[in-house]
Design a protein that fits this description.
With 273 residues, the chain is an alpha/beta fold. The protein has one domain: Rossmann fold, CATH 3.40.50.
Length: 273
Amino acid sequence: MRDFEGKVAVVTGAAHGIGRETALALAEKGCRLAICDVNEAALEGVRHELEANGATVKAHRVDVSDRTQMEKFASDVVEAHGAAHILVNNAGVTVYASFEEHDIEDLEWILGVNIWGVIYGCKFFLPHLKAAGEGHIVNLSSVFGIIAPPLQTSYVASKFAVRGFSESLRAELAEDRIGVTSVHPGAIKTNIIQNARLVTDTHEELRNSTQRLFDQLGTTPDVVGARIVRAIEYNSPRVLITKEARMADALKRLMPATTDGIVARIFKRVSTQ
């Protein structure tokens, strides 16, 4: 999609971080915006920021894990803007716990947001993307959609699922002028780590040390937003963001049998820092 001017772009999880920066980057290209998040106060701040920059934007409080809300969100967007051309499924959450420690409710929560949110977004917006004659879907996976560290079983499951779902969907939509991109960020300076649920206090220090590492070495979310816009522009099937994501991908290709052990040792070292 080379011409963004006047296109309607939908961004979930837009109140902070990658979602906010992606919305700003799409607005700079001339898109009209439909943004959503569960944090209504923060979302309103992003709406005011976009409007101050001259963008046309509607903000919607939506829980992406709720089927009814997502179906209504798609209808509301088309009613307000008349069309939908770009969908960025960005909303995501995580939990720090071993699989044994996980409650079923925690698993349902994270899979609800991270995978069902993506599925609902694609399902309910796809007819409108097709009706527009041209469209693009961006699904946020992760470096943990490539490698599988310990204490992230639910997050890894959701992000591997997003990756596979996106690859299959891209093949299905190849003849419909609708591109599909899976995005795999590494360490990004967002609040997803600090906001991660802790099932027990056992892993609090690991969460905090990981957040410190992200704050020190992580890439800023605006870099991700710019790369997402470029991926839409060039119809990229997959985007690896940050050197650790590229390294993880290379390791997994070169040493598939030993990479998981290397990753586990790295995370154990981080937890003791």
